[in-house]
Amino acid sequence: MTHSLHLDPLVGADDLKPAAPQSRPSWWDRKQGEWKKRWDDMNGDPVRRGKFRRNAAIAAVVLLLAGGGAYWQWGMVHQPDFAVDDLDDIFDYALLTDDFNKLPLDQRLALLGELVKRLKSGSTEDSVMMAAFASGIAGAARDQLMKNSSQLGIDMWDRYAKDYDEVPPENKEAYIEDSLVNMMKMMEAVGGVQRDISDEDRIKEMKRQAQRDVKRAESGRGPSGAMAGRMFDFLSNNVAKNASAGQRSRGTQMMRDTTRYLRGESLNKPKVPEGEKPADGENPADGAAPSEPK
Fold it and tell me: What is the four-CA torsion angle of 210, 211, 213, 219, rounded to 10 degrees?
């Protein structure tokens, strides 16, 4: 009788299956692990921790300075030094950029005063440069020049006109006098002019000039129709369009009363009804605000 010996296989079917691939941590996970280990090592070492904090603070300051420098260089127009920088840079900034208009009024006046002072004591080279600059203004540059010069006058007048409506009727003439004197002094300061004259004499001077203008107009020796038309066009298209609606309203009211005051007329003169012809010698603008610029 033959007996067969049964032996179990040394390798089972399951053992012959391919081994499942072992998962490896991703690149990001490995880097996070490295950074965490470095961070823990640094925090455990007081010397390294202090050095890291100092370097981080320095890096932050450098980034802030670099960002601020980039904005200063490319994000805004640099304000030149009106006393020493090239005149073409100064003219470009003061006359041909809108950044100048954003400065406070007193700062604009002070800078223009510095420019006038420099031009008065300037060299022949400065005069040539100024002439070359003026001859090259055209197109959009000319429009910006008109805007900047108009805006200065608008803001100066509005400084006083914005409070005029709140002045009691009995104090309006005194308010007008103070405003005119202050504006005259500001413009003289900008032009580098010093006049030894009292406030009362300044007002008398302005009244005499207003009376001379009235007499010239009455005698036909005033501005010609063409000149008056050009003046009106300048005021409508250059000054009025650069003023806000509020500035136009305030400025018109105070300008009307100022004109009447200098002529010796009553500030309470009634308005000329719309459509009616003003009385002889009366300025049509005295009774109505100018139309909105188109």
Answer: 170
pTM, rounded to two decimals:
0.56
d(CA 27, CA 33): 10
- Pairwise CA distance, residues 100 & 150, whole Å: 12
Note whether 259 and 251 are within 8 A (CB).
no
Q: Is the pLDDT of residue 112 over 80?
A: yes
CA distances from residue 123 to 87, 126, 127, 235 in whole angstroms, order as listed = 11, 5, 7, 35
- Asked if 183 and 106 touch (Cβ cutoff 8 Å), the reply is no
pLDDT of residue 289: 44
- The pair phi, psi for residue 103, each rounded to 5°, is -70, 155
Q: What is the mean pLDDT of the chain?
A: 71
Of 4-8, 85-89, 217-221, 232-236, which one has max mean pLDDT? 85-89
Residues with Cβ within 8 Å of 52's Cβ and at least 6 positions away in sequence, in order, are: 42
| Orientation angle between helical segments 140-161 and 172-190, nearest 10 degrees | 140
pLDDT in tens, 19-45: 555 666 676 667 667 767 766 676 677
Contact 150, 239 (CB under 8 A): yes
Pick the closest to residue 146 from 63, 241, 215 (CA basis): 241
Q: List phi, psi (to 5°) of 133.
A: -65, -45
